[in-house]
Design a protein that fits this description.
The chain has 100 residues and is mostly beta strands. It has a single domain, classed as Thrombin, subunit H (Beta Barrel). It has no helices and 9 strands. The model has no long low-confidence stretch (mean pLDDT 91).
Length: 100
Amino acid sequence: MSFFKFGFTQTALLSRSNGTNVYGDVQYSVPEEIACRFEYKRQEVIGKDGVKAISEAVLYTETEIKPLDKVDFDGRAWIASTVAAIRTLSGDIDHWEVTL
């Protein structure tokens, strides 16, 4: 259980990326509701491939999210750009920090 679980008072719909179709479009799973904390926060992020991008928001959740997963929140679809597992002092995963 996350130390920050009490702060995950919002909900969003998570659609996991299932790869691409024959046309190169990303395919998504059926959306599932997740508890989260959503913050509008503009920042520059650098992905694992070294590409710079502007992130418009940050999502905190106990649910594992991967890059390219889609999050529907506040009437808008967001694509996960970078994902970081935040760990406790014992090394266990506490929660996930996702830039959108």
